[in-house]
Backbone:
């Protein structure tokens, strides 16, 4: 089985080289700062989330700056831009239906876009009817959604009364609204190997502008704190399947992944699989890029912008 995974990874790399050449973008955004080259993250719900997913328990929200009112969000976005921020991520905890309550904040986002022209990426969750079109009118630069591909991760991990079809509908809503879609897939969250294939099924039907693979990073204080993270081979398999099925869709390894030596190994395998971009690279990523003959460009925005920043158009 292991040899077949590495054969797939090699095939993926070869396809990337044929389609894109040997160019690679490393994204190094400062999510916490408020100075030049920063890319701050704002939570419209503060540290609150109705779902309390088993792998997160709202811990991720604690690293974001609270922006609980439209006025606060607008003020913070304008302030960040004035200090040199290149853009920002507007996120937040989910409602019980899986949607992030962005609707009251859309006018503030639109105002910030008009006044500054800054990059604005939004994390939508399972969009409600009409939200996608409103976000499109606000001219957001990209929409993120964490895609789940099996019933276990949807119901047992994320506590949603939803199905894979609900994620397919959300993807269609965002694509049909004309918003550049850069969905994320968390390796290690789904219980079935078919989860990645179900996600790729929906993305073949409604093609995204980029696809971001991330990996479960067990967090202290959550029920999954002791869950073994995915192996580097697991991540390489997901990346290779995405390349082989989505082909010329830019492919990135996102910022959430395990720490330490395992992170280094994941980065090495990801570069070997022919990704287009990688967020917060480790020394292992640089070493793999150098040994593989990849030309590296560094950027200081969110890796969801890979479809804008990627220096080479696919052949």
Residues:
């Amino acid at each position: 089985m292991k040899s077949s995974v590495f054969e797939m990874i090699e095939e993926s790399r070869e396809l990337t080289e044929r389609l894109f050449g040997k160019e690679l973008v490393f994204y190094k955004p400062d999510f916490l700062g408020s100075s030049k080259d920063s890319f701050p993250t704002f939570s419209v719900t503060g540290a609150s989330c109705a779902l309390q997913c088993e792998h997160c328990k709202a811990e991720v929200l604690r690293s974001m700056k609270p922006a609980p009112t439209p006025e606060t969000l607008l003020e913070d976005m304008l302030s960040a831009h004035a200090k040199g921020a290149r853009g920002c991520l507007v996120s937040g905890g989910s409602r019980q239906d899986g949607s992030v309550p962005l609707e009251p904040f859309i006018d503030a986002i639109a105002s910030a876009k008009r006044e500054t022209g800054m990059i604005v990426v939004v994390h939508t969750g399972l969009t409600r009817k009409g939200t996608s079109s409103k976000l499109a009118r606000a001219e957001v630069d990209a929409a993120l959604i964490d895609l789940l591909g099996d019933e276990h991760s949807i119901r047992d991990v994320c506590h949603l009364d939803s199905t894979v079809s609900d994620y397919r509908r959300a993807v269609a809503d965002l694509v049909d609204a004309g918003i550049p879609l850069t969905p994320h897939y968390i390796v290690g969250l789904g219980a079935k190997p078919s989860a990645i294939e179900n996600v790729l099924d929906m993305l073949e039907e409604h093609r995204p502008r980029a696809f971001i693979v991330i990996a479960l990073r067990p967090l202290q204080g959550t029920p999954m704190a002791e869950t073994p993270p995915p192996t580097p081979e697991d991540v390489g398999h997901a990346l290779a399947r995405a390349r082989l099925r989505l082909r010329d869709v830019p492919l990135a390894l996102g910022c959430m992944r395990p720490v330490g030596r395992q992170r280094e190994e994941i980065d090495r395998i990801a570069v070997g699989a022919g990704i287009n971009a990688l967020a917060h690279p480790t020394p292992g990523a640089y070493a793999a890029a150098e040994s593989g003959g990849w030309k590296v460009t560094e950027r200081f925005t969110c890796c969801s912008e890979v479809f804008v920043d990627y220096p080479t158009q696919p052949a």
